[in-house]
């Protein structure tokens, strides 16, 4: 489990590195890619062995190992999150983004509203708009360094055209871990306004400081009739290129509606994607994840100490995910100057906070899932870029 190894992603058709300049303006030749949310770690050895076995076999005809995939997902949810699910509740999708898109397609119509608390994963808004639905953004409140949900503000923002709430648990970009009471309050809000609740739990496996993820279905079992959980192994095991996610839907009526839309697309998961996910969701995969979390804890400590040493810069303490959420408001600089220093002086490609919606404008998101020497390099670059403040 050598997370220090640079696996060399430049020139491999890797979005994170080979599209770095196109997206962020930073050259991959001398820059650091800390934007898109995939890691620079090779996946778990149990996954690569399973894939190599399939490659060695050499035949890639139609597959049908739904039972193995469902069993693996069920084992993982039970052992890692204490959530006992039925195999029949699981509907495979072509990644988490596809799961979101299909949910919007299933339970809303063109012109309907979809709401979410911001700042949040930008694809919630973008997928809503691409589907010709209307995004309703509900700003969270930053209280004592942690985001809090503001249901009074939510009442003022939404109207009766809103049919769905997409919720991020754990929260991206802040890494906030929600309590059972908070999750139940979200579900109660959806019940009050007759909203379908889509709970995006893709970052659930990467928790720090002994925290445990609470699935929304466990926190709010009384609201199963409107709750859909979506997830994937992609963030945990660095498998986003396999494009395999899944929806977990306990309610028969909701599941039938979603499955009907999925059948219309004639989607079924790819053979290698299934093999990778089954191999990941095993005891050996779990051990690898624990080692990764320990390594990320070290990255987080180095990064936070280095950036918090810059006057006016504050890296929000991560409770989960590998995505640092850094506030530059204390520098007194306008957003264009902060952006220019990160891009042109530090030469780091990041995700600008404004793309995460209201409340994100003074922040930037940094991906910490990379070898430690790159994190140390990033800290040194940032301290040089803001040296005049020190």
What does the model show?
- By secondary structure, this protein is an alpha/beta fold.
- It has two domains: 15-44 and 285-389, Alpha-Beta Complex (Aspartate Aminotransferase, domain 1), CATH 3.90.1150.10; 62-282, Type I PLP-dependent aspartate aminotransferase-like (Major domain) (Aspartate Aminotransferase, domain 2, 3-Layer(aba) Sandwich).
- 41% of the residues lie in helices and 16% in strands.
- It is built from 15 helices and 15 strands.
- It has helices at residues 15-18, 20-24, 45-57, 66-81, 96-107, 123-130, 151-157, 180-192, 216-219, 234-237, 252-264, 271-280, 283-308, 335-345, 372-385, and strands at residues 32-33, 90-93, 113-118, 134-139, 141-143, 146-148, 162-168, 196-200, 227-232, 245-248, 314-315, 323-327, 348-349, 351-352, 363-367.
- It has a seven-stranded mixed sheet, with helices on both faces. A four-stranded antiparallel sheet has the order 11-12-15-14.
- Strand 3 (113-118), helix 6 and strand 4 form a beta-alpha-beta unit.
- Helix 3 packs antiparallel against helix 12, helix 5 (96-107) crosses helix 11 and helix 13 (283-308) packs parallel to helix 15 (372-385).
- The longest helix has 26 residues, at 283-308.
- The two termini are 37 Å apart.
């Amino acid at each position: 489990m050598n997370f220090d190894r640079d696996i060399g992603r430049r020139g491999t058709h890797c979005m994170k590195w080979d599209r770095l300049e196109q997206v962020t303006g930073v050259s991959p030749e001398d820059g650091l890619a800390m934007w898109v949310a995939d890691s620079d770690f090779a996946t778990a050895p149990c996954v690569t062995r399973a894939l190599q076995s399939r490659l060695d076999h050499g035949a890639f005809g139609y597959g049908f190992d739904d039972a193995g995939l469902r069993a693996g997902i069920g084992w993982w949810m039970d052992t890692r999150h204490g959530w006992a699910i039925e195999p029949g509740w699981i509907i495979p999708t072509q990644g988490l983004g596809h799961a979101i898109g299909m949910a919007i397609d299933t339970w809303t119509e063109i012109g309907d509203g979809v709401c979410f608390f911001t700042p949040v994963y930008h694809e919630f808004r973008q997928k809503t708009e691409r589907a010709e639905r209307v995004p309703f953004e509900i700003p969270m409140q930053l209280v004592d360094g942690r985001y809090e949900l503001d249901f009074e503000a939510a009442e003022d923002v939404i109207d009766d055209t809103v049919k769905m709430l997409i919720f991020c648990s754990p929260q991206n970009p802040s890494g906030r871990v929600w309590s059972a009471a908070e999750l139940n309050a979200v579900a109660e809000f959806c019940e009050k306004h007759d909203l379908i609740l889509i709970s995006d739990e893709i970052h659930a496996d990467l928790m720090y400081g002994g925290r445990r993820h609470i699935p929304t279905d466990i926190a709010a079992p009384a609201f199963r009739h409107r709750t859909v959980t979506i997830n994937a192994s992609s963030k945990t095991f660095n498998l986003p290129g396999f494009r395999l996610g899944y929806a977990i839907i306990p309610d028969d009526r909701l599941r039938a509606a979603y499955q009907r839309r999925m059948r219309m697309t004639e989607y079924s998961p790819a053979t290698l994607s299934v093999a990778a996910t089954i191999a990941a969701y095993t005891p050996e995969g779990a051990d690898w994840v624990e080692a990764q979390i320990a390594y990320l804890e070290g990255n987080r400590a180095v990064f936070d100490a280095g950036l918090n040493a810059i006057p006016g810069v504050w890296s929000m303490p991560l409770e989960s995910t590998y995505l640092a959420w850094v506030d530059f408001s204390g520098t007194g600089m306008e957003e264009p100057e902060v952006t220019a220093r990160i891009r042109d002086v530090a030469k780091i490609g990041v995700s600008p906070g404004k793309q995460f919606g209201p409340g994100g404008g003074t922040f930037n998101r940094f991906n910490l899932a990379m070898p430690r020497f790159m994190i140390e390099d990033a800290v040194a670059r940032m301290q040089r870029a803001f040296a005049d403040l020190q």
